[in-house]
Amino acid sequence: MNYKTMFSLEGKKAVVTGGCGYLGKETVRGLVDYGAKVAVADSRITVDDAYAADIEYMECSLDSTDAVKEAMRKAAGNEKKIDILITMAANLGAGIQSGVEDMDDTYWKKGLDGTVGYTFRTIREALPYMKNSRSGSIINIGSLYAVGAPDPRTYTDTPFSSTPNYGAGKAATVELSKFCAAYLARYGIRVNSISPGSFPHPNVQENRLFKERLEAKTMLGRIGYPDDLVGAMIFFASQASKYVTGVNLMIDGGQTAW
Fold this sequence. Notes:
Helix content: 25-40%
Strand order of the largest sheet: 3-2-1-4-5-6-7
Shape: globular
Radius of gyration: 18 Å
Distance between the termini: 37 Å
Order of helices and strands: EHEEHEHEHEHHHE
Number of domains: 1
Structural class: alpha/beta
Largest sheet: 7 strands, parallel
CATH architecture: 3-Layer(aba) Sandwich
């Protein structure tokens, strides 16, 4: 191996769900910078003007199997191949039902489907094309709350909360990643997950009290920013991680290591 090129994604075809979002946009930029041909599947398309010439945008509702199937077919193109799949999209649904005692069945199911359901459907519909790669990499997004519970004190006197269906769905996503790692290894497909810690949207960061509480929970004393995820994404997507599968990598500033 030429170690100078071990992180290269030249000639690789990548699909990123949720690639127009706060975290997804920076990951897409990283993939392009390392040479990948990237297709973004998102429910609402926002074109990145600086990278628009290098990205294929596909408006896609991940609630619909037919829509996901068509997006994967389009992304695979004439080669009928997908090398890298990154499942970043998530949707808890409209409204706020944050507690176990007040969450109805509809909202509970929506949160599970908008996390592990989105991930499962995307993997399933991408697999026919990833099998053609013979060296594919799937990267799913877990969460800090996939491995531990939120501290309710973090949210006191703020307008924010963490819902039980979100954590449950992300924990299921991490387990699904391990299951797929075991069963897809026969096709040369590696499957790993990345679990971000506190990466609040800029709108959330405006609440100084909440941001300071999040910062205080980490060893590094700060929240995460989109570019903090990119190195791990490139590692898992590239041949640098060719003997790594079934791993859930915490990117949380050391919060879960206290």
